[in-house]
Amino acid sequence: MKTRHFITLVATCAAMVLPTAGHAEPDLSTFQAFGEKPGLVKIMDDFMLRLLADPRTRPFFEKADQTRVKAQLVDQICAALEGPCTYGGAPMGPLHAGLGIREADFNALVEDLQKAMDAQGVPFRAQNKLLAKLAPMHREIITR
Amino acid sequence: MHVIKKLTLLLAWGAALPALAGSDKLLLTGGVTQLEGAAGGGLTPWAVIAGYGTRDQIGANAFYTGVWSQDYGLATGGIAVGLWDRLELSYARQRFNTREVGGALGLGNGFAFNQDVFGVKLRVLGNAVLDQDSWLPQIAIGVQHKRNDQGAVLRAIGAKDDHGTDFYVSATKLFLAQSVLANATLRQTKANQLGILGFGGDKRDGYSTQFETSLAYLVRKDLAVGVEYRSKPDNLKIAREDDWYDFFVAYQPIKNVSVTLAYAHLGNIVIKDNQRAPYLSLQVGF
Fold this sequence. Notes:
A: 66% helix; B: mainly beta; 3 helices
């Protein structure tokens, strides 16, 4: 009998504490720390300049349609941060399949992104929250 | 002809090295160097591979660590090579200065134990940094073979051997969204005070399993603070051996250089209890 009371108590507490799946309001604090969509546009403009200036990443971006890549990155990151955007580009795998990207290239891009986020004053913890969402893409992006 | 061939070979090496030499891991994700020469925290090995080499690259580190308690000094220097972010080979030499305790024990003031530590570590699975969508940590297994140069003294204090081998398994995970890095290590060892006081003893002579852990918070890209704990065996009748813990700050001003400052609680060491020690470690690498 006592055990059952205890279980009820635990279940009630859990129900109070745990977020209800699916219906929770999106947590926009990280998105806001990035300055929302206008902030992301600024960061991506700066990021692309850094990618083109960095000899490690330049080869992957110099021939690309940079305006389009920037716009897609804004949408992708905005969506990853639960902002009001939809990423309409191709999936990561097919997009990077023929590029022969190594882990070192991937990390170089992350470093340039960190610098771009620093330059726009994005707090370090918010930067890490975004990187945590992007990092698993390494499986589809690094192909050699 | 022969000379030209050699020169060409050398030039080819020179050209290949920069391509192979890694400096492309992310900042602070290579850890620092622990007391026995493995990449890790200050006291304990982590599952990360030394140096900044990625899976296509070779990385390397050199380090020097000084630990100064009220009554003893421990100086350690060494090198570690990381191959393809998979295999780590390390060598460290420790010099433990007994200062005036040596005199009190009849060994002479400034009597020192020297120990060589040869380490091998293999990353078995996982990627502590990139696999952020999974709870699976990076896991590595390792061996540290230690040889102490004071066999006669060690036997006199009750140790059974002047050399020994530790076996460990480490699990390391970076919780990037929380800016927290956690490590847990299980070690099979007979070593008394890292092996500085020999291996096995008159109280207990056999392997025991010890637990080591590190918890770090990333304050900035180049700055981490944390705590560490390392449990230790207690094999010698002559003196109780205590578990160790420390608080640390690791700073990496540029990718090739890191400085770690810590304050370590070392407990009882032979006839001196409650040893507390500032710990300073410098590391250079690529």
